[in-house]
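Support request from a user on the community tier.

User writes: "When I paste my structure tokens into the form, the page sometimes reloads and wipes my input. The last time it worked, I copied everything first. Here is what I submitted, just in case something in the input itself triggers the reload:"
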């Protein structure tokens, strides 16, 4: 691996473009129905979205679209791919603040958001250390008592095939609570399901 590649891996940057099948699937009505119709309502159950909300890794913007429809008035997205970020800017204009950057080194001050949403993004971070840095950054930018809410997929043969030649670094849901606690969160909960899991964690109250 080149020096640049090693630095990108350490920082949490994606090292490979999403393959064409994966791109088509993420833009498909099947994935839209699953993500927006089933997964996202499960992820956001009981989550307050009244304050500033940050979405990490919006990709094609399905979750972004749903959050706008849910009436989130102060929504920021952080996308590492410049072209994907630009598409979101053109689509939403001033309704969504779209930032280009690395979730392992977020360009936001501490305690900027009341909630952070992270859906099917962590497995695209190529190292466990990079994933842990994303979690630590989510904790840093949350206000006291703010909530991180997210989901990801559990690994399977089909999941691996979709990610052929992509970055594929699945998260073990049974060790994620420990990792969230290590990142500084309180009240970490992980709910595994057949093919996926959701996670919740809360930033500690101010001293």
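"...and here is what came back when it finally went through:"
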């Amino acid at each position: 691996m080149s020096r640049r590649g090693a630095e990108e891996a350490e920082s949490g940057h994606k090292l490979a473009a999403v393959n064409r099948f994966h791109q088509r699937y993420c833009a498909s009505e099947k994935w839209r129905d699953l993500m927006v119709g089933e997964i996202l309502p499960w992820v956001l159950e009981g989550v307050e979205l009244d304050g500033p909300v940050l979405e990490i890794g919006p990709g094609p913007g399905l979750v972004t679209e749903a959050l706008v429809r849910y009436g989130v008035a102060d929504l920021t997205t952080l996308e590492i791919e410049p072209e994907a970020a630009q598409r979101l800017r053109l689509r939403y204009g001033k309704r969504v603040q779209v930032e280009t950057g690395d979730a392992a080194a977020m360009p936001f001050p501490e305690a900027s958001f009341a909630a952070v949403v992270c859906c099917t993004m962590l497995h695209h971070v190529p190292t466990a250390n990079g994933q842990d840095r994303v979690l630590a950054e989510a904790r840093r930018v949350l206000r006291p008592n703010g909530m991180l809410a997210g989901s990801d997929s559990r690994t399977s043969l089909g999941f691996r095939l979709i990610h052929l030649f992509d970055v594929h670094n699945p998260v073990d849901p049974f060790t994620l609570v420990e990792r969230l606690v290590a990142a500084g969160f309180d009240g970490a909960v992980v709910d595994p399901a057949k093919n996926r899991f959701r996670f919740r964690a809360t930033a500690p109250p101010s001293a």
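Agent notes: The reload is a front-end session timeout and is unrelated to the input. The mean pLDDT is 86. The longest strand covers residues 142-153. Escalated to web team.
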